[in-house]
Write a structure and sequence with these properties.
Number of strands: 2
Strand content: 5-15%
Largest sheet: 2 strands, antiparallel
Structural class: mainly alpha
Shape: elongated
């Protein structure tokens, strides 16, 4: 198994889920997608199965036997080992302590906001804020449902963090949009365009 599978960003999430309870890869995939929009769009079945195989080969997880539900095929159930727990703790400690700069597509786009012109920037930011408000309201509902269903707050604390980031982004977008509308954010004169003929 390629060592790079252990560098996959889903490794801590998989180890964390197995810290909660043993599971088979299909259950892990469903749980990852259920808990995170990022994982829902980024994690494929193949990626997860390769990651699980690498974790087992490294000894961070171990097979606990087979499980069959109904007439579905048998599935291998994995549990976290002591070495896997130590690795999870090591990775989480490093990731929490080190505030790395994380580049997002939005940050890259905002760097060139001026290209849209004032009206285009206001339109784009207003639409983003509208969509972000809808998503945030849905995320707040999902978090409230999880907590009212008895999920321990510590198991969904990342949802609180994501909501705090979304609220901060909305506040920034609202401020910048208002500054553009009122003219308090100066807009430079566009550079002359060259003729492409």
């Amino acid at each position: 198994m390629p060592r790079r599978a252990l560098d996959n960003p889903i490794v801590p999430s998989v180890l964390g889920l197995l810290l909660e309870r043993p599971a088979h890869p299909h259950k892990l995939l469903a749980e990852l997608k259920n808990r995170s929009d990022h994982h829902a769009s980024a994690v494929t079945r193949g990626t997860l199965y390769n990651t699980v195989a690498a974790l087992a080969e490294t000894g961070w997880i171990a097979s606990q036997g087979l499980e069959r539900t109904g007439n579905r095929p048998e599935r291998t159930v994995y549990a976290l080992t002591g070495a896997g727990h130590a690795e999870l703790v090591r990775r989480l400690d490093a990731q929490i302590r080190d505030p790395e700069r994380e580049f997002s597509r939005f940050l890259g786009a905002v760097a060139h906001l001026g290209a849209l012109g004032p009206d285009g920037a206001v339109d784009a930011l207003t639409e983003r804020a509208r969509r972000l408000r809808l998503r945030t309201a849905e995320d707040e509902r999902r978090l409230a449902d999880a907590l009212s269903a008895g999920v321990p707050r510590l198991h969904v604390i990342e949802a609180e963090y994501a909501l705090a980031l979304a609220r901060a982004e909305l506040s920034w977008i609202d401020t910048v949009t208002e500054e553009i509308r009122t003219g308090t954010l100066p807009w430079p004169t566009p550079a002359p365009q060259t003729d492409d003929r």
